[in-house]
Amino acid sequence: MTVAVVRFGGSNCDRDAVRALEHIGVDADIVWHEDGLPADVDGVVLPGGFSYGDYLRAGAMAAHSPIMDEVRDLAENGVPVLGVCNGAQIGCEASMTPGAFTTNASARFQCEHVTVRVERADTPWTAAYDEGDVVTLPIAHGEGRFEIGEDRYDDLVAEDRILFRYCDEDGNVTDDANPNGSRGNVAGILGERDTVAVLMPHPERATLPELGLTDGQGVLTAFA
Known about the structure:
CATH architecture: 3-Layer(aba) Sandwich
Strand content: 25-35%
Helix content: 10-25%
Number of domains: 1
Number of helices: 5
Shape: globular
Number of strands: 11
Radius of gyration: 16 Å
Oligomer: single chain
């Protein structure tokens, strides 16, 4: 499989994503957003960073880049697409997933390790885990609070589209374990197809053994 890691002006996790994917045996290349996607792409990563300097809202301008029309077309055809951190914000702004990521409840940039609970283990992104597993991943965001209307949140729950929730080390979903105030402790959700996912924590930063944490490998094996 060849994965395109889309680079926007301000992306800063694109090379991290390529290195992590290559570590698990997946071919990956950085694609500049103005150049469009290659014809032979089998997967797409929208990486973290600060696309367009988070001007207007995080991810808002990148969501209107012409390459996102191509990304949406691939997603509608079942090609796996993963948005991480700023990529998650772009994915929501591009209406690939519902809701929005807004300013953290603390109004501060949060950079730390968190624990998240696997809510579903029957998706490409979580097939390497068991339901209820607790996974440690890094976060680094100022606008990571997932917000969505109450009715639409209820729909997400009913449709079983919540992928990860922030939790404590024992898997308990609590207010104290929520680093940014996300509704329902949501850390990651699915699109209309389970081949599309966005999440605020960084699996690519928890993949290389030399960095001391490998819990994120399971997410990226969706591309393997």
